Amino acid sequence: MITVVTGNKNKAAEVAAFFAGIAEVTHVDFTCIEPQADTVEEIARAKAEQAYAALNVPLIVDDTGLFIDALSGFPGPYAAYVQDTIRNAGVLRLMNGVADRRARFATAVAYADESGVRVFSGTVEGEITTAERGTEGFGYDPIFAVGVSTLAEMSMEEKNSLSHRARALAAFREWYITSR
Fold first, then answer.
1. How many domains does the chain have?
2. How far apart, in whole angstroms, are the C-alpha atoms of residue 71 and residue 103?
3. Which of 63, 126, 131, 136 has the greatest number of CB atoms lying within 10 Å of its CB?
4. Which residues are Mg(2+)-binding (predicted)?
5. 81 annotated among ligand-binding-site residues
6. How far apart are CA 29 and CA 12, in angstroms?
7. What is the pLDDT of residue 11?
């Protein structure tokens, strides 16, 4: 069994879909105090340590950052705060008139159990669109395009075949299967 610790039910659903037929996934809505750090790996590790100390069950947490080249990597590991405050519309305003729209998502999945914490990372390159497109997904998905489609224009299966979170989860899944 894999316990996913997140306040975001959409993330929990993505993880459950990713592990369908491999492992049972449970969701615990537990809010970690998010440390300020420069990398998503550092943040995920700290959150996993915190959640494991509180819940004492093997679990995973993740942290995701959005790094926009033209904005010197902003919002980076503070993507959740930026999403909560200025949302997609604010990011699009910041990018108004900017030609270089390259960006990348980076996710770190941290697994904690009695033996410690292991961190698995994944990234996906893309670009910030000029307008929101699509109705699937959540967060920045409507403004982040990989190829011709935004993540919000993709089905969960399509998104889970190429996203940053899918790549980090694939690394975790490979380790999880072989370590059991």
1. 1
2. 9
3. 63
4. 34, 63
5. no
6. 9
7. 83
Which residue from 64, 127, 138, 132 is spatially nearest to 101, judged by alpha carbons? 127
Report how far residue 59's alpha carbon sits from residue 130's, in angstroms, rounded to the nearest whole number: 37
- Residue 72 confidence (pLDDT): 97
CA 162, distance to chain mean position in Å, is: 12
Residue 111, marked binder: no
- 43-52, 106-115, 117-126, 158-167: which has the minimum mean pLDDT? 158-167
Query: Is 140 a known ligand-binding residue?
Result: yes
Q: Exposed, middle or buried by CB within 10 Å (0-12, 13-18, 19+), for 105?
A: buried
Looking at residue 133, its pLDDT comes to 98
Catalytic residue numbers? 63
The DSSP annotation for 39-51 comes to: SHHHHHHHHHHHH
**Three-class secondary structure of residue 59 per DSSP:** strand
pLDDT the model gives residue 19: 87
Q: Is 150 annotated as a binding residue?
A: no
Angle at the Cα of 143 from the Cα atoms of 139 and 146, rounded to 5 degrees = 105
Residue 66 lies in domain: 2-179
Q: What is the CATH number of the domain that holds 158?
A: 3.90.950.10
For residue 77, cis peptide bond before it (omega within 30 degrees of 0): no
